[in-house]
Amino acid sequence: MTRVAAGRLAAVAVVPVAALAVLVSPAQALPAQVDYVALGDSYAAGPLVPLPKGTPAGCLRSTNNYASVVAGERGFTSFTDVTCSAATTEHLTASQQVTAGTAAPQFDALTADTDLVTMTMGGNDIGFGSIVTECALRSPTKPQGAACMDHYTAGGTDQLEENIEAAAPKIAAAIAGIAERSPDAEILIVGYPAILPDTGPGCFPVVPFSPGDVAYLRDTEKKLNAMLEDQAGAGGATYVDTYTPSIGHDVCQLPGVKWVEGLVPTEPAAPVHPNARGERGMADAVLAALSDSSAA
Known about the structure:
The protein has 11 helices and 9 strands. The protein has a domain at 30-82 and 89-124 and 169-195 and 223-295: Rossmann fold, CATH 3.40.50.1110. The strands form 3 sheets. It has a 5-stranded parallel sheet, sandwiched between helices. Strands 2-3 form a two-stranded antiparallel ribbon. With 296 residues, the protein is α/β, with parallel strands linked by helices. Helices cover 39% and strands 11% of the residues. The longest helix has 24 residues, at 211-234. It has helices at 6-13, 17-23, 42-45, 66-74, 128-138, 147-152, 159-181, 211-234, 243-246, 276-289, 292-295; strands at residues 35-40, 52-53, 61-62, 78-81, 96-98, 101-103, 116-120, 186-190, 238-240.
């Protein structure tokens, strides 16, 4: 996928050998001629992590979201960021109404020349926003119980587990859609970082989820990431684990340590979303997963 312009190669050919080492030193590496497209929801867009960029403004994309960090770190010559807060898999092929404008279908950014695609998607398909709201309201009513889990498992079935199962074919179709439009692209499916502590009861009432609900929600996020990993593998894409490196950086940690903000952010970020440190951590996971052809 990596290409170097013929003119640049010719210029290098006539450079004295002594100077060549300077030109190709790591500090002055040539930009990678990679066409990179970033797709995804708010965890990819980085809402309220300064500074905002792009249109429509309602997508709340950040100049410090993980895709921007990756593109800047690698010096990719072509970078198109169409991530949008509140996006679902539907908005890959359909327009999305946001508070300030309309976002075009995200797949419109893909071409046959696209070399690299990252996508974080699925959280909104299972109802991320409503889950946070429901649990924040219900869990405090039974601080020694699991009122949120009781709500989603009433009737003997786990509604959130069913939502994850229902989202699986949508993710599969999304991966297939990327491959169809950009057949030579490396596809990275980027998972979600640890929102709640990986072990233990949480930090009620600072984050108002009871210990029982913390365990339930933690397991639900792990099931979502496992589904994304399974669909990535089945579709010939690479899954990027951002959960493991983010353990110990959850909403219960102190400012300066946490990667994901709580319901009341202590750093610029949307509630229960990654801050700049979290987007940087997700970018590091993506950078580590890039193949040699995209990372050059």
